[in-house]
């Protein structure tokens, strides 16, 4: 079981930022490169035994939604059987581990009762819920990876985190990244004919005089032309880091015995950032560093 998952569950759930179903769904979403903030609200009503109704365990509900996020059918009429099979297997494994998938049976608390809510806090029953959440995330991700819906976590991070420590996954050119997804969504919302409307709007607001230039930029951002430094090489052509890491058979510069070196090919300012990034990765661990990259602006 991943220590990283436990740490994140304790951080989010234990820190009171999110509850069981929200935490589980959010972590599964993150593991597949989705933005947790977009899906976490879907899980809120499933927390505390389906909103204090003594219903299904929230960790179980979050995991089912997480499985559906990646294995569910993406269009009307699509095949739902693969998702059903994964959910059935998940429920079987969770039930075998804990003897139930029901919140009341797992915690012994009816969250509609104020007395039980107080007992839940006083007796630290929440510690059990941490374990349910960690197990639910771990089981769901294992199933999704076994069936090829998600890569292993190390491979996923490697595909989105450059050897220099910068986030390829957040880059404006990254295929499937948040910038591409949002650009394409905006293109779809505006539609193919918005240029004609922008022309009409110029009389109301001169900002629309620049729409043609914006349309070109939006089209570029929506392309997502790059699959990351390890595949295509850095967009900064003078950068020698990816090739150097391949030569030294390491994933990140800080793993090399020669780090820090002068082979990076970067100008002074970028070289300093490269050095600091890798020192931080070495100190915090790659997974923790990557998680921090996901919540920071790519272009500070």
Helix content: 55-70%
* End-to-end Cα distance: 35 Å
Could you name the ranges where pLDDT drops below 50 across 5 or more consecutive residues?
none
Q: Roughly how many Å is the radius of gyration?
A: 23 Å
Order of helices and strands: HHHHHHHHHHHHHHHHH
State the shape. globular
Structural class: mainly alpha
Tell me the number of helical segments per DSSP (H or I, 4 or more residues long).
17
Sheet with the most strands?
Answer: none
- Mean pLDDT comes to 92
Beta-strand fraction estimate: under 5%
Number of domains: 2
Give the number of DSSP strands. Answer: 0
Structure description:
By secondary structure, the protein is an all-alpha fold. The longest helix has 21 residues, at 126-146. It has 2 domains: 3-150, no CATH class; 158-295, no CATH class. It is built from 17 helices and no strands.
Overview features:
single chain; about 300 residues; mainly alpha; about 60% helix
Topology:
Elements: H1 3-12, H2 20-31, H3 36-43, H4 47-52, H5 58-71, H6 81-98, H7 103-107, H8 114-122, H9 126-146, H10 153-160, H11 178-190, H12 194-201, H13 211-221, H14 229-232, H15 241-248, H16 268-284, H17 286-295
Task: Summarize this entry quickly.
It holds the Pfam family DUF3795. This protein is mainly alpha-helical.
